[in-house]
Specification:
alpha+beta, Elongation Factor Tu (Ef-tu), domain 3, seven-stranded antiparallel β-sheet, about 30% strand
């Protein structure tokens, strides 16, 4: 368990607080921006912020680290739509991303949610790792409200937005994977060795106190999850094909 603590704390300390970086340049199609920083993990997510005045600012886009040039210390940031604060009753922003704006990365990285198969694994990790843990009951309740006994990637992302979760930490096959809550890219991994007894009494789709997650009549996510490890392995592999075998 000492390895678990060291691993997670090290990951969080890389970005103990959100990092605000000025934009160096913007691509012609406004879909890519470039920022300078000493180092960064691929898949780190955030937003582009435009400052209106000393007391007002606005989020223009989502941001995700696409690549990093170690020699130039230059990160390539992919932009996408940010709709979480959209209000049809208000006029849409006409601001375009420019070099006057800033990229804010690693938002809410101190708030994490653990996906674990059993009560023992869940409690051992959350008790020994000093993070601001969001209770898995909230995610189970969230899934029930959306009729998804099987959590979809959009459920993870919506949970991130609703509860300000920066990281998902997923236990899978004696490893802990620290995953960016929006990009679902693996930032790091570490051994988390438990005996076989700890993996008995698996609860699906993950450990929580919620006995049953309501299901929609049909549609993706409406079927009950049949097995823990195969599902989360496939989900991680979809967004991290080079890191999950």
């Amino acid at each position: 368990m000492k390895k678990i603590v060291a691993f997670v704390v090290m990951t969080i300390q890389l970005f103990a607080t959100a990092v605000t970086l000025p934009i160096e340049s913007v691509s012609d199609d406004k879909d890519i921006v470039y920022v300078k920083l000493p180092s960064v993990d691929i898949g780190l997510s955030g937003v582009v912020v435009h400052t209106i005045n000393d007391t007002h600012s606005i989020i223009l886009k989502r941001a995700e680290v696409l690549s990093f040039d170690k020699e130039k210390k230059l990160a390539t940031i992919q932009l996408s739509e940010y709709n979480e604060l959209q209000n049809d009753a208000l006029p849409k922003s006409e601001y375009q991303v420019s070099s006057k704006d800033h990229v804010v990365l690693a938002i809410a990285y101190k708030r994490a949610l653990l996906i674990a198969p059993t009560e023992e694994i869940y409690h051992k990790v959350t008790k020994r790792v000093q993070l601001e843990w969001v209770d898995s009951d909230f995610f189970a309740t969230f899934l029930s409200a959306h009729g998804h006994p099987t959590p979809l990637i959009e459920d993870f992302r919506a949970m991130s937005d609703s509860y300000s979760v920066g990281l998902f930490i997923i236990y899978l096959n004696n490893k802990l994977y620290t995953v960016d809550a929006q990009s679902f890219k693996i930032l790091s991994e570490s051994d988390a060795l438990f005996d076989k007894q700890a993996e008995k009494m698996i609860k699906l789709p993950f450990y929580s106190h919620i006995d049953e997650i309501e299901a929609n009549w049909f549609g993706e996510g409406s079927s009950e999850l049949k097995a823990y490890a195969p599902y989360y392995k496939a989900l991680l592999k979809e967004y991290n094909p080079n890191k999950i075998k």
